[in-house]
Specification:
Shape: globular
Mean pLDDT: 94
Distance between the termini: 43 Å
Structural class: alpha/beta
Number of strands: 16
CATH topology of the largest domain: Rossmann fold
Strand content: 15-25%
Low-confidence stretches: none
Number of helices: 23
Largest sheet: 10 strands, mixed
CATH architecture of the largest domain: 3-Layer(aba) Sandwich
Helix content: 40-55%
Number of domains: 2
Length: 554
């Protein structure tokens, strides 16, 4: 295999561990804290998880290891979308497992949860693992989006565990995947299988965090990757001085990625979905807000700029959410076939006009034709509009163009407006992990095995104090049920991990809000550059600005 110099060098990188995990397995003891309760709906969550609810938070410390000696056979899966660092969770888990007992075994189930159901696996050894150390992607075993949530599925997993003698299963995933981990752990405990289940917090969207989980892995690398390219675009915009760049970034349910990229690059505009929802901003008011920046900059002779748009922005616009709901109802059941059978867009347009309320049609009618048609593309499995297919960066640039035309006609705007569009998503999901993510993920995996060795189940691997150097990080675990509440999903009340949205009274947003008016008019661009792996710690091991602001270190 031909390897790049960086690949070769990264294989040899030795991830840093929290101080209490550096002493060797024999000198790691456990300290239990207080019992926990769920963030909401305590009685309902407790009733659903009688065997795993209310357990204690724990931390690891230097001391005599009192874990019972036993051979461990562990299965691991990667679940959901890719995030930089997943390979290091597995290598950390493998190294801790083998350091405890060379006879311990690690199974990697392929293609996500379906690998467990279909008994598709690989048994890791040193040669296999060493090919993936400190690398991006999930190609070590692949991932998938199958949900583990039914009794029938759990029974299959139980049989697979018996067949291979599994003592534990580690699920590396986001909020849904770790919700599934909690439910699987409860099943395994209720059926006295002896199989433990441990979760690890992954998502580049940054919405799996709370007072215990300071950051989900992958967020650091992905936002640094996007910020590098946004910085490059800013430099180009400031060089050519003739284009407005509309950049969509990932983050459908929360705007953490957009906010972090804005803090890193200081663009002229960054929309935050949570603020749009709180202020009940309309499409026209958002377009007007962006047009104000375009107009003011044009008055200074700056007919260029950069606007960052979170992927899920339209779902935060109240009037658009109502429109989506009406479209879902309009095309419910067999009505989709009726609509699709119409031979022309004009006939479909009339069908839509007759089926929507006047208020929603008014919103629909201001959309560019291309965006209108995107709303009627292939439905998701539940028959709903696939909002992620809407090119919101093109939507807002078109609305801004229309608004500027009105202002030009009124004589208030005399500039030039030429828009270019970008979507940064997949570019960041499998990047070489930053040193932070390489260290954090390796620690999460190593720590997951410590939770297994001490007999815990239904726990999330937890590493905190992340704004400090790695030797000051604190390793431990928390019951997954602590993060859960009840939500309505597909017509049923279900226990789920509560998503973390951007807090408008939080330090990161407050910092952004205090500076954005100046950034909107000035050319205040900053250029983060590429992720650095070798050099001064203040360059190579730096955390996100979001984490630094949250922890008061910036």
């Amino acid at each position: 295999m031909n390897l790049s110099p960086l690949q070769k060098a990264r294989y040899e990188y030795a991830p840093k561990l929290p101080g209490m995990l550096r002493n060797g397995i024999a000198e790691i003891c456990v300290k239990e804290g207080a019992e926990t309760s769920s963030v909401a709906d305590q009685d309902k969550i407790k009733a659903l998880f009688p065997n795993t609810y209310g357990k204690k938070e724990i931390t690891f410390a230097k001391g005599q290891n009192t874990a019972p000696a036993k051979k461990q056979v562990v299965g691991v899966i990667l679940s959901g979308g890719q995030a930089p660092g997943g390979h290091n969770v597995i290598t950390g888990l493998y190294d801790a497992l083998k350091a405890t007992n060379s006879d311990n075994v690690l199974y990697g189930f392929k293609g996500g949860p379906s690998g467990l159901l279909e008994d598709d696996y690989v048994i890791f050894d040193d040669a296999f693992i060493d090919q993936y150390r400190n690398t991006g992607g999930f190609d070590i075993i692949g991932s998938g989006r199958t949900k583990l949530e039914t009794e029938a599925q759990f029974a299959v997993v139980e049989e697979m565990a018996k067949k291979h003698g599994l003592t534990a299963i580690v699920i590396i995933g986001g909020d849904d995947s770790n919700t599934n981990a909690a439910v699987l752990a409860e099943y395994m405990a209720a059926h006295n299988t002896g199989v433990q289940v441990i979760g690890c917090p992954k998502t580049i969207d940054g919405d799996l965090k709370n007072e215990d989980i300071e950051a989900s892995f992958g967020f650091d690398t992905a936002t640094k990757t996007y910020s590098e390219v946004i910085g490059n675009i800013e430099r180009d915009a400031n060089s050519a001085k003739k284009y407005w760049h509309f950049v969509k970034v990932m983050g459908r349910s929360a705007s953490h990625v957009a906010l972090e990229c804005a803090l890193e690059t200081q663009p002229n505009i960054c929309l935050i979905g949570e603020e749009v929802a709180a202020k009940k901003m309309s499409l026209s008011s958002i377009a007007g807000y962006i047009a104000d920046s375009v107009e003011k900059r044009a008055a200074n002779g700056d007919n260029f700029g950069v606007a960052i748009i979170p992927e899920g922005i339209v779902e935060f616009v109240p009037e658009f959410s109502v429109l989506i709901a009406e479209i879902n109802e309009l095309l419910a059941g067999s009505k989709t076939d009726t609509f699709n059978a119409l031979p022309s867009w004009n006939e479909k347009y009339d069908f839509i006009k007759n089926g929507l309320t006047a208020e929603s049609f008014a919103v629909f009618d201001i959309l560019p034709t291309g965006i209108q048609q995107q709303l009627f593309l292939e439905r998701d499995p539940h028959g709903n509009v696939q909002v992620s297919l809407i090119e919101s960066e093109k939507l807002f640039s078109a609305l801004v163009k229309d608004e500027l035309a009105k202002r030009k006609e009124a004589g208030t705007y005399k500039g030039k407006f030429n828009a270019l569009h970008h979507f940064f998503g997949y570019e960041g999901r499998c990047a070489f992990p930053s040193n932070f993510d390489a260290d954090y993920c390796y620690s999460l995996g190593y720590n997951a095995f410590m939770l297994i060795s001490y007999g815990y189940t239904g726990y999330l691997s937890k590493v905190s104090n992340l704004s400090k150097p790695a030797d000051e990080w604190i390793a431990g675990g928390m019951p997954i049920t602590k993060m859960m509440n009840m939500e309505r999903r597909n017509g049923e009340d279900k226990p789920v991990i509560r998503k973390a949205l951007v807090e408008l009274d939080g330090a990161p947003f407050k910092y952004f809000a205090a500076h954005r008016d100046a950034w909107a008019v000035e050319t205040a661009f900053t250029y983060p550059g590429a992720i650095q792996y070798y050099g001064p710690s203040e360059v190579c091991d730096i955390t996100t600005k979001t984490l630094a602001l949250e922890k008061g270190t910036m």
